[in-house]
Amino acid sequence: MKLNQEKGILTSLINSIDRAESDLRMITEILELSIKEKNSNLLCDIVDELNIIEVTIKKLELNYFFSNKHDRLNCYLDIQSGSGGTDAQDWANMLFRMYVKWSCYKNFKIEIIEKTHGEIVGIKSATIQILGKYAFGWLRTETGIHRLVRKSPFSSNNQRHTSFASVFVYPDIDNTVQIKINSCDLRIDVYRASGAGGQHVNKTESAVRVTHIPSGLVTQSQSSRSQHKNKNIALRQLKSKLYKMTMNKIKSEKQILEIQKSDIGWGNQIRSYILDSSRIKDLRTGVEVSNTQSILDGFLDIFIESSLRHGL
What we know:
Double Stranded RNA Binding Domain; 11 strands
């Protein structure tokens, strides 16, 4: 099944390249003909066609950046509120909304695995599963600290406030990857899944939290009313996290913020959202935009594509 899927992806890519090459040859012939016959009326049509081909080529270019082993896989995206109190929990919820909307624009399916609401507004944490072709490839560079600066709506004198939240993206590792988990290393807790305002989703203890004691990794799921299903989802998340942690050690990559349990604060920022100045800047690539609401509404590709082109 997997080989057939990969074959289908490669066949579609080859066909797209062939069409682009064919269109370029055709336009070249038309251009040469228009020059020979001194017919300037065709030039506007040629420019329009070239613009269309340029868009196609840019989309094909992204396939080059999705060459990592797990880029083709579905993924999980964890959001954790950091320093900043109520504002930080509101900020975490804004990021949650942003990534959900981005996923919808990409025609990806999402499932909310876990969502812990804040005491007043927003969320303390959330985990989303994102399903679609190259979901991990698209989102892997979003891992890091996201910093918000704005006039706080929760401050009586409307003071400028800085909040932090972390995003951690990891691939949904399939069952062909062998990660051994000793049951003795696990602590499994069950609890009632709670909604906003402390309301219970159901009256049974169906939500499951799994702690891997040696590494300190924690996963949890409350997306199903079945405790058994939630346990399987949490264990699968744990397997994915352990796999990525293992690969990071092998490749001697930079320690992942989530794994090291480092503070969510000033360090390791990847992007600043300065809303009272209508400015969002990626600190790694230097890309800066002023249409802040559009970004928060999920139109993130300007940042994601730039980070991929920079090889992050």
